[in-house]
Specification:
- The chain has 19 helices and 17 strands.
- The chain is α/β, with parallel strands linked by helices.
- The strands form three sheets. It has a nine-stranded mixed sheet with strand order 3-4-5-2-1-6-7-10-11, with helices on both faces.
- Helix 10 crosses helix 14.
- The two termini are 14 Å apart.
């Protein structure tokens, strides 16, 4: 932890660049969009000039912007706009970034390449014209930022820069990229010297060692390789290979909202005086389920995905959620609509949960991604089969609606097959709602199991993919939550547990890694 004197001395230090393909302050699709800007803000609070670099993805910024730099790439003009928010963003616009689709639409590799070329061009510019602006750390997030790190690595060797390169893995993609992409598309010479785990070697050497697997190539060619939770470190080591054991660290994700923010929001909308009072929760839940549910509409932000799902959502009546006829205990789930999230496990558990608790109300809020059509069909069929107990919201809701559902729920589910961190679990406990989650990745770092620690527990952990354990745990938790004394104690535990995940702590961990 830095003391006040150290903090003052750090003001004016060379900047830290955080590279991210999305940011909630510009264009957000998933959880990644929350992390770099929040970490950057926490770093700035510690006295560091942390800047987020992100593409515009079709967003037109008008206020608080000024052009910082421009470069022509393959006949297209790209501009870096300084976006004066907290934290400060350098937003890249023009050319391929006029496309509103972030991860869909077939231009992902092209966007990744251009992002790297623009960032590295600007890095060269500041090295040659303004030494005080040269970053001391470039922190790339996920493989989309790796071309920028690789090109920065080449410049680091060429210019002898004192520059730390950090790669943070948020989710293993096992993405393989052809050599031609690096040599022809972003212009890396086969024999270009880059630095890596074995010192300065030709790019071809490290590429062949990685076999084109970009996440392994990143491991071989950065100064620090990190992920997002202690629990996910072992999963990453297992995938990358035995030689990585003990060489991967983590910078934990943290709260998107605090308990106070949730409670203040709910108090404003539902006139809640005591957010931990079971009767207050019951009142809010009843109003949400029997009245407000019809207004909780999701928005699909990716144009390509929106168009491909339009007719399916209408066919299965998933385009307009309806309120329930009656109140009942509420089970909530939200997140990306992807196989990783354990949809098959969840659907396989529904019948038993409903048989054991016929008045249970289950709300699933999914953000679809490209290729979601088969999962939408499956959801639609279950929506028809369990229409009395089940509501499905497709698309991104407002933060206020998310907070309200988290607050009203008796249980929150995260049945993921694997989960690097599990931001939704932290969001849930911050709202005072217990979690049933898979024993995997960051989830096992977040959820304290009530069976092992009844006094401090915040939910249950189950084996990934086990629909029987999921159903049993949900039924058990709902039964426990019927008792007002149990409910109030567990909700207090949840709020207390959420306080362990702060961006101030994450920034402190990041600084230790940056400068070790």
């Amino acid at each position: 932890m830095l003391n006040g004197g150290s903090r003052r001395r750090l003001v004016g230090m060379k900047p830290i660049w955080l590279l991210s393909f999305e940011s909630y302050m510009v264009r957000k699709v998933g959880g990644l969009g929350e992390v770099p800007p929040r970490l950057a803000r926490a770093l700035r609070e510690k006295g560091y000039e942390a800047i987020v670099y992100t593409p515009s993805h079709g967003v037109k910024l008008i206020e608080n912007v000024e052009e910082l730099y421009s470069v022509n790439i393959r006949g297209e003009n790209y501009r870096i706009l300084r976006y004066r928010v907290n934290p400060e963003h350098f937003v890249i616009e023009g050319g391929v970034f006029k496309d509103e689709n972030v991860y869909s639409g077939g231009r992902l590799l092209e966007k990744s390449a251009v992002f790297g070329l623009v960032v590295s061009s600007y890095l060269r510019h500041v090295v040659e014209t303004g030494f005080d602006k040269v970053p001391i750390v470039i922190h790339g997030n996920d493989w989309h930022s790796y071309p920028a790190l690789l090109l920065s690595n080449m410049l680091k060797v060429e210019k002898g820069l004192s520059l730390k390169l950090v790669y943070q893995l948020h989710l293993l993609s096992k993405m393989k990229i052809d050599l031609d992409f690096f040599t022809s598309v972003i212009g890396v010479r086969m024999h270009a010297p880059i630095t890596g785990v074995e010192g300065v070697k030709p790019f071809e050497y490290y590429f062949n060692r990685a076999g084109g697997w970009v996440e392994k190539l990143a491991y071989l060619t950065v100064d620090h390789y990190v992920t997002v939770s202690n629990g996910y470190v072992k999963d990453v080591e297992k995938n990358l290979g035995w030689e990585t054991a003990g060489r991967i660290d983590y910078i934990p994700n943290a709260l998107v909202w605090t308990s106070k923010e949730v409670f203040d929001t709910v108090a404003k909308h539902y006139d809640v005086k005591n957010p931990l009072d079971p009767e207050e929760r019951k009142r809010v839940r009843r109003k949400i389920l029997t009245e407000d549910m019809a207004g909780f509409k999701g928005v699909i932000t990716e144009p390509h995905v929106k168009e491909s799902l339009k007719s399916l959502l209408e066919h299965y009546e998933l385009d307009k959620p309806k309120a329930f006829d009656k109140d009942g205990q509420l089970v909530f789930l939200s997140g990306r609509l992807a196989g990783q999230k354990g949809l098959d496990t969840l659907l396989g558990s529904l019948e038993r949960i409903i048989v054991e608790n016929p008045r249970v109300r289950i709300v699933l809020a999914y953000i679809p991604v490209e290729g979601s059509e088969p999962l939408i069909r499956k959801l639609g069929e279950y929506h028809w089969a369990f229409n009395e107990n089940l509501r499905i919201i497709i698309g991104k809701m407002s933060p206020e609606d998310y907070m309200s559902l988290y607050f009203a729920a008796d249980a929150y589910l995260v049945p993921s097959r694997y989960e690097p961190f599990g931001l939704v679990a932290v969001e849930s406990v911050a709202a005072g709602t217990p979690v049933v989650a898979s024993f995997t990745g960051g989830l096992k770092d977040i959820v304290v199991d009530l069976r092992e620690n009844p006094e401090e527990g915040v939910g249950f952990l189950i084996r990934p993919g086990n629909r029987f354990e999921l159903a049993e745990a949900v039924v058990m938790l709902l039964e426990i939550m019927k008792n007002p004394a149990n409910q109030e104690r567990i909700r207090r535990n949840c709020v207390k547990r959420s306080q362990e995940f702060s961006w101030e702590k994450s920034a402190g961990k990041a600084l230790k890694i940056y400068f070790s």
